[in-house]
Specification:
This protein is an alpha/beta fold and 282 residues long. It has a single domain, classed as Rossmann fold (3-Layer(aba) Sandwich). Helices cover 27% and strands 22% of the residues. The strands form two sheets. Strands 1-2-4-3-5-6-10-11 form an eight-stranded mixed β-sheet. It is globular and about 50 Å long.
Amino acid sequence: MERSPELRIVSLPALDIAVWDWPGSDPPLLFAHATGFHGRLWDRIIRQFPDRRAIAVEARGHGRSAKPVPPYRWPVFGADLATVAVSLGISGAIGIGHSSGGHAVANAAVLRPDIFRALLLVDPTIFPRAVYGQPPFDVSFTLRRKRVFDSPDAMFQRFRERDSFAGWQPEILRDYCEYGLLRQDGHWTLACPPEAEASIYENSTALDADLHDELPRIAQPVVVLRAARQRQSGSIDLAASPTDPALASALPRARDIALEGVSHYIPMERPDRIAQEITELL
């Protein structure tokens, strides 16, 4: 029989965080998703480790976690992740974070090094240092997102025709739609409100989001897995990588891998490669 995760709610001092907890052996796998996504987007990767405990945390403003009123500052995501891990008694984990989740995993490793034995940062949103302190990105496109759908299947049928999802494996896109909506007042509504997503993007270049001074404190082995195509400054291009190309060199024990032929959505396009890197870190 396939494992199913338990949905757990971890109460932090100011809000509740949802956690999908898959039973299994240690060392555990601790997953952090990207902006606008949710914890169940890791399902197809987690299922490749049937005996391993896996914890997929849903960041504040996302999934089944609490959704405070914006603004959303970037330091809170790493702090939330560290607090949740400590609350669950997690230590010696492999931390896997995609995009803003990669930033959160790196930040959590600075705050609580004992949580992790190794890190896999998948196209992490850790910009070159010069980007921080620059004007925020134009995020008006986020506020125009369709918020209400007739059903998860209707969302799937709408998104499968879009170029931005062309490289996604269909079953992962199905998971995105299935768990990316919440049933509210007879409607299916986005689990990440566009206002929350927009605030996260707006604050991504703020000075308090810059981790560069803290990166040398991450002593664990780190793999930086990123798209080879680099994002141009001043824009949000989800087909390209936001990651500082020199990120691995700023970490004491890091290896840099630049993948050709992928977009920013590496876990959705190449879950096999994510699983391969996790296996090697284990």
